[in-house]
Amino acid sequence: MATYSSLSFQNACSPLMEELIFFHDYIMTILILITVIVGYTMVSTQTSKILNKIMIESQPLELFWTITPTFILIFIGMPSIRLLYMLDEVYTPLLTIKIMGHQWYWSYEYSDFLNTEFDSFMTPMTPTSELSMIRLLDVDNRMVIPFNAQIRALISAADVLHSWTVPSLGIKTDAVPGRLNQLNFLVNRPGLYYGQCSEICGANHSFMPIVVESVSSLSFLKWMKNNSS
């Protein structure tokens, strides 16, 4: 989860997040080039009298700044549309999990297994807490999934609007009362991935974190066997 002075993205841990970071870098490259060219042109027009005379009522220049933005928008729009389709693509899931938002905790139900349902509350920090705990982000029950497996999450809410978000996986889906929203994702390596509710949902909105634990398929089956009632 390392970032550069807390300004960059978290490390990508899913193909979707890798594509999002690549698209961000691609757009930033274009924006920097445009900023440099426009800035250089503005400074030049203020310091060069000859250039000013050439640019006044210049038909080729007007043609250039009309056509060039069209191509720039095409270069930005095509990858953007491709990425939007990738984010909404529905794959055949190996595991389905139902996620419910409450004031102020999350509950998880593994629909493919019998009697596997639990609530996930934030773990409060105390003087005796383990040093490895992360303040305001650790929970008592993590959502455990196998890595390199396509996961489908069905997300809803029991009371008010919530939003289930894990930045390092590049996923964010609103939890709307009375409605099921579907989310598909794949985690490509084991680890712990932290998130929080991203929709203001009440007084304790900041205290309903999300922890996704990605493990091997064998470890997942052992965890499921131990947690099935």
Any overview of this molecule?
The chain is of the alpha+beta class. It has 2 domains: 15-88, Helix Hairpins, CATH 1.10.287.90; 95-227, Immunoglobulin-like (Sandwich), CATH 2.60.40. Helices cover 35% and strands 26% of the residues. The strands form 2 sheets. A 5-stranded mixed β-sheet has the order 3-2-1-5-8, with no helix packed on it. It has a 5-stranded mixed β-sheet with strand order 4-10-9-6-7. The model is unreliable at 1-5 (pLDDT under 50). It is a multi-pass membrane protein. The chain crosses the membrane at residues 20-43, 63-85.
DSSP strand content: 25-35%
CATH superfamily of the largest domain: Cupredoxins -  blue copper proteins
What's the number of domains?
Answer: 2
Which CATH-level-2 architecture of the largest domain? Sandwich
The major β-sheet equals: 5 strands, mixed
Q: How far is the N terminus from the C terminus?
A: 34 Å
- Strand and helix order: HHHEEEEEEEEEEH
pLDDT < 50 runs, ≥5 residues: 1-5
Let me know the number of strands: 10
Radius of gyration: 24 Å
Give the class-level CATH name of the largest domain.
Mainly Beta
Count the DSSP helices: 4
> What proportion of the residues is helical, as a percent range?
25-40%
CATH topology of the largest domain: Immunoglobulin-like
The whole-number mean of residue pLDDT values reads 85
Key terms for this structure?
single chain; 229 residues; alpha+beta; Immunoglobulin-like; 35% helix; 26% strand; electron transport; membrane; magnesium
Task: Draw up the topology in text.
Blueprint: H1 15-47, H2 49-55, H3 59-88, E1 95-102, E2 105-110, E3 117-120, E4 143-146, E5 150-157, E6 162-166, E7 171-175, E8 181-186, E9 191-197, E10 209-215, H4 217-227
Parallel strand pairs: 1-5, 4-10
Antiparallel strand pairs: 1-2, 2-3, 5-8, 6-7, 6-9, 9-10
